[in-house]
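**User:** Once you have settled down, spend some time on the protein underneath, comparing sequence with structure tokens, and judge whether sequence predicts the tokens.
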Amino acid sequence: MIILLCRELGSGLAWSLLLASGALGNLLNAWVQSPAHRSVGASTAVFGAVGLLAAISTLRYRQNLRRRWFIPVAAGLALLAILGTEGKNTDLGAHLFGFGSGTFLGLATEYLVGKHGRPGRALNGLLALAGGALVAAAWWLAVKPG
């Protein structure tokens, strides 16, 4: 799924959007849950990727879909229902907010890519480096003593 997203947008932009949808989904989930809720996971970003692809496909291929424009979104929601609700300790809110964040970011991204084109190699490289640095900094902050 992430490989397809990288093919559609370029690796740097795709990974940046994946990180953003995961972070935004987890932030929204933490905001609506009780303070006792202690769950932050990468699965939020996975469902963010599903939302990104659903939104991008809906806008990009809307002329081919005509009256069936809702099919990519319905497929994304089906994946969310099948894969995102299984298990006793599944964080349904995180999966739903990840999907919603990905959908929102996908709509905005496809609008901008349609208007300005895909990012060039230099910008994609910069986005990839920034995303990697962000992940490294987050891990550093998480494991540093004190």
About this structure: The chain has a mean pLDDT of 86. Residues 26 and 77 are 18 Å apart (CA to CA). Residues 92-116 form the longest helix (25 residues).
